[in-house]
Design a protein that fits this description.
Elements (H helix, E strand, L loop, with lengths): L7 H11 L3 E6 L4 E4 L1 H6 L4 H4 L4 H4 L5 H7 L3 E10 L2 E13 L5 E8 L4 H28 L14 H14 L5 E4 L6 H10 L8 E5 L8 H6 E2 L12 E2 L1 H4 L4 E5 L6 H13 L1 E2 L8 E2 L3 E6 L3 H6 L5 H7 L2 E4 L10 H11 L9 H9 L5 H15 L12 H4 L17 H19 L4 H8 L3 H11 L14
Parallel strand pairs: 6-13, 6-14, 7-10, 10-13
Antiparallel strand pairs: 1-2, 1-5, 3-4, 4-5, 8-9, 11-12
Protein name: Fis family transcriptional regulator
Keywords: ATP-binding, DNA-binding, Nucleotide-binding, Transcription, Transcription regulation
Organism: Desulfovibrio fairfieldensis
């Protein structure tokens, strides 16, 4: 050990100077009594020239008088020091020092970041994390938000006017709504409109397709689970979809596919307005409006023992029955034109033969099938208007189509034309989902990776935010 370290004072000073961060102590009169070389250099001197001087003379912006007077520490504050002809900001902690009687005798100032470049890098990282958090919050809000209102429901036929009237009437009510309709009739769109028109519109809209969840995972998905609830569970646990719908609307699509064991728990939640996560002992209060939908005969399922009768009466307070497309043929042409505008063909039109064929067809897949049919037609269209010959054979099978007297026009570059059609289709889908890539990928039934690749291929811009229905 060096001889000069025989003095405890010199040893103490050597320890202070070895620290990479600034340390300073001033007494109750703000006189600097201890300081290390790092802090002294920030004040424009060295240890010898700084010791014994009033801190306010060295830094007029010091907070020492405030901290010593009120005795309260200030942590993580930004300290401004004039250096090299400019003002630099540093993160500083100010801690009052007390004697054995509790009286404040001075203050310790601790500068965390002495390198302006280091501080700028930290600020850059904080700003990046803040933007990332904002992005995730926006994505979560977009994911749990309704995107459609009554105006999105296309059709002015008598059956659809009746549906819209029921939506307006039921939206203001707090009771559960059961939506009945075949596949592709617009059950999810109706649920969106009910939420948007309700007094819960500012809350979340959580949509769950019960048929898409494996039975063994259903309870964990719907009710959530506590930390360590089972072997493959997340360490931090998981919030269930019901909790996410708190203060908003929970939409259970295809409710006929809920397993019986989960039906019991769902009924209890509806009766008690409380939810208990798997593996948890305490419950949580929840407040949500329930909307359910199915294309199945629930009463037949009850008779077969596949659906609980008590749950059926709990969810079936208000009912909306959606008509199949074949029951409203006058809506087919407005729907078709609307769909064409969505897939990037706003100026396309139909021949009389095409309209007659579409109106005569039964449409077992309803609007969803109409959407796919029109995509097919635009890819096979050879004239200025979509003709019956451009429709799939299943649609025109029962309609007599007059022979075409002129040969169809051919596209000289089929690949380029198909690419243009696909680009327009993707652009329309993104616009429909407000630029949300996740929702668009779900609607198109492709992976996000595939969708990102196509967007990059065609140079289509998107919001990059993280199951929308086809407008009806």
């Amino acid at each position: 050990m060096p001889e000069e370290w025989n003095s405890s004072e010199l040893l103490y000073q050597s320890v202070l100077d070895a620290l990479p961060e600034g340390i300073l102590y001033c007494d109750a009169n703000y006189i600097v009594r201890k300081v290390n070389q790092c802090y002294a250099s920030l004040l424009g001197g060295d240890v010898k020239t700084i010791l014994g001087r009033p801190l306010p003379d060295l830094n007029p912006l010091t907070r020492a008088p405030v901290v010593i007077k009120n005795g309260r520490p200030e942590m993580g504050d930004l300290c401004t020091l004039p250096l090299f002809g400019d003002n630099y900001k540093f993160v500083v902690n100010r801690i009052p020092v007390r004697d054995s009687d509790g009286a404040v005798t001075g203050m310790v100032s601790h500068i965390l970041f002495t390198d302006p470049a280091e501080l700028r890098e930290l600020n850059r990282k904080i700003d990046f994390l803040a933007k990332k958090l904002k992005h995730y919050n926006r994505s979560l809000k977009s994911e749990h938000n309704a995107h459609y209102d009554i105006g999105s429901i296309i059709g002015d036929s008598a059956p659809m006017r009746a549906v819209k009237k029921l939506i307006q009437s039921y939206a203001a009510d707090a009771h559960p709504v059961l939506i009945l309709g075949r596949t592709g009739t617009g059950k999810e769109l109706t649920a969106h409109a009910l939420h948007v028109r309700s007094n819960r519109a500012a809350g979340p809209f959580v949509s769950i397709n019960c048929a898409a969840i494996p039975k063994e995972l259903f309870e964990a998905e719907l009710f959530g689970y506590a930390p360590g609830a089972f072997s493959d569970a997340r360490k931090e646990g998981k919030i269930g979809q019901i909790e996410l719908a708190n203060t908003g609307t929970l939409f259970l699509d295809e409710i006929g596919d809920i397993p019986l064991h989960a039906q019991v728990k769902l009924l209890r939640v509806l009766e008690e307005k409380r939810i208990t996560r798997l593996g948890d002992v305490s419950g949580r209060e929840v407040d949500f409006r329930l909307i359910t939908a199915t294309n199945r005969d629930l009463q037949d399922m009850i008779s077969q023992g596949n659906f609980r009768e008590d749950l059926y009466y709990r969810i079936n307070t208000l009912t909306i029955r959606l008509p199949p497309l074949r029951a409203r043929p006058e809506d087919i042409l407005p729907l078709a034109r609307h769909i064409l505008s969505k897939i990037g063909c706003p100026t396309a039109n139909f021949t009389d033969e095409a309209v007659r064929a579409m109106e005569a067809y039964a449409w077992p897949g309803n609007v969803r099938q109409l959407f796919n049919t029109l995509v097919h037609a635009t890819l096979h269209q050879s004239g200025e208007r979509i003709d019956a010959r451009d429709l799939p054979h299943e649609v025109t099978g029962g309609v007599q189509i007059p022979e075409r007297h002129s040969p169809p026009q051919r596209h000289h570059d089929l690949a380029a034309w198909l690419s243009a059609q696909e680009a327009g289709f993707l652009t329309a889908a993104l616009q429909e989902n407000q630029g949300n890539v996740t929702l668009t990928a779900r609607q198109l039934d492709i992976s996000r990776v595939t969708l990102y690749a196509k967007l990059k291929k065609y140079g289509i811009r998107h919001s990059d935010a993280d199951t929308a229905a086809i407008d009806l």
